[in-house]
Task: structure prediction
Amino acid sequence: MAFLEISGLRKRFGAVDILKGIDLELEKGGFLVLVGPSGCGKSTLLNTIAGLETITSGDIRIDGRAINGLHPSKRDIAMVFQSYALYPNMTVAGNIAFG
Result:
């Protein structure tokens, strides 16, 4: 069984599909590199896994457990940003509390 399993992931912003039909399996201890031009959905994919963006459809599982509806703080996932970033959809208090 894969440690991280994504099946049929779709993320839409309005009428635009940013991610469509993403299927991915990553074994525990595995290594994944996402490469692509700016705007192709790399950060959106990571944000959906971390729970910072809601998915339109599909499933995300960690160690066999569905995490689609889990709050980001309950997912036990951390992200390291290339540069310091705030979440524009959160209030100042929300950004501070999240950090």
About this structure: The two ends are 32 Å apart (CA to CA). The first helix runs from residue 42 to 50. The chain has a mean pLDDT of 90. The chain has two helices and four strands.
